[in-house]
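hey so i finally got around to running the thing on that chain from the lab meeting. sorry it took forever, my laptop kept dying and i had to restart like 3 times. anyway pasting the input first so we r on the same page abt which one it is
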Amino acid sequence: MTGRNDKCPCGSGRKYKKCCYRAASAAVQAAPPDPFLAAVAQHQAGRLEAAEAGYRALLQRQPQHADAIHYLGLIAYQRGGYAQAVGLFEQSIRLRPGVAGYQTNLGNALKKLGRSRAALAAYQQAVRCEPTLAAAQYNLGSLQLALADQAGALDGLRRAVQLDPDNPTYWLGYGRALMVAEDLDAAHRCFDRALTLAPQLHEAHAAIAEPLLRFGEVATALQHYRHAVQLQPGNLNYHSSLIFALNLLEEDPVILHREACQRMQPWEQRIAPLPPPSEGGTERRLRIGYLSHDLRQHAMRFFIEPILRHHARAEFELFCYYTHPCEDASSQHLKTLSEHWVHCAALDDQALARRIRADGIDILIDLSGHTTGHRLGTLLQKPAPVQMQMLGYLNTSGLTRIDYRIADPVTAPAGRYEALSSETLLRLPHCQWCYQPPAAAPTPSALPAALPGALVFGAPHNVAKIGPAMIAVWARILARLPASRLRLVAWGERAKRNLTRAFAAQGIALSQLEFVEPLPFEQYLGFYQQVDLVLDSYPYSGGTTACESLWMGVPYVTYAGDAPMGRGGASILSALQLEALIAHSLDQYVDIAVALAHDLPTLADWRATLRRRMQASPLLDGAAYTAALEQLYRQAWAERTAGAPAPRPRDADVQT
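ok and heres what got predicted. didnt touch it at all, straight out
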């Protein structure tokens, strides 16, 4: 039943109590002869069959009653009959083309059907019909955001909050658009405004955690994620976001594993898997599915391309399930490397699972884990007989329905994480990454440093990855090298203030710090031409950052931490046989950085030779990497067809 303060289902965007409630209430109390109002009363009370009968009876007498037709469309929409709803909404619009609510609901139904462009046209027409209707501006701006029309989204959502400044949902939408525009300070203010208006709004708690992470306020972000989970415990995304954020704060892999299992394995009780599929033999051509939100201009493109390019097509049939709403030039390029490209953003978790099962996928590889845009709700349904996780997330998912996690000897040393993974670990021989450098990367520059000890250190990391322990380490390096500076990338003024205060608490003056704003990728690689040595983050190590730095000729000092998320840099350096840059304690990290600051000839030599070294390393050997990966796929499939692998350790077996 619709509450008085809920949005009116008629599509006006107004609250029910200020729209159809009065008419419906009067219909119930006075039982007027108007059959439409009587049917509306039944509709608002949640009695859809009675409402439908009332509307149809009215249409028998008045076939051109646009509102009755429209409300039948609403009933179809509420029942999930979106195609039927579209037909009814269009019929009502032909009778009364100037009603914004009709156009809005048409857009909603079209969007449910995945017809985004048609939905956009409907929302635009709603705005033309009634420019001051905040709901119309909000719906239009939200869809423009999903379609990557950043300017249009910002304009529409800004208008929505101006027209209805007391609506927390509109502030959330505007904040999300500002996040995409990377105006994190303004986005944070929007989310904070939404929380002021609705302190118990779970979406607002989850939303405000995102900029807080980028400001480096991980503990506060975790509090908001926990609050969101408490308010909406049945939201899988909130549990997943909380698990991911813990990796930015917690260093103990035992605690990380326990939290992942405790939060995720109850979902395996709530969501039943699909019935097991029929399977063929071990030697046939296997159908491999790659599932990702990031097959676009995203770091993932540099690591998935070598795999798609070098797969043995005679043995493996490739499917890419791309879940982001928009395709860009990178998506189009990756599409050319995939036999079957399935753009499935419009499919919900259940529909996507059915599609994967219908495609007969043998091995489904998840490239997201607990990162943004994951489809864990699909993986929980076990659409493929073998499911794996790799590349996008280095730690355990916590799900037993993901059978394997692909790692390497450095990120997951043998015997170290088996009991801390809900999946069986499979290890590639060298590195879990294979890198495809960007074609437009500039050539490495000459070493900027002119004097020993007067270096510019670089830290181009997401501030969320930089924990207090690493800030203290970087401060020690700067203190020992007072003529040196640290160049950091910071998203917004709040991030800069937080970093400035953190370093000041360690005795480091602002004069030794340089802050740069994030740049478009085409300009971003120029960052490395201006620094002498890159310092890796902790407790969450860089992966793409390490590859970019080394490709640009800049050495990369890392600390091999205790948790898997802190060992990515060590894995990449090991693949290049650059173990001298890997520290096994934070003290050693300081010593390596300080020693290199006084050794300009070595830094200059690396500047000139690192790119060639990478080209000759396993990190860029796409053919060998993919062959090894295919061997793991065959191994996993053989285990599946021979019977389930040996039981894996569970959280209860971990000694704490």
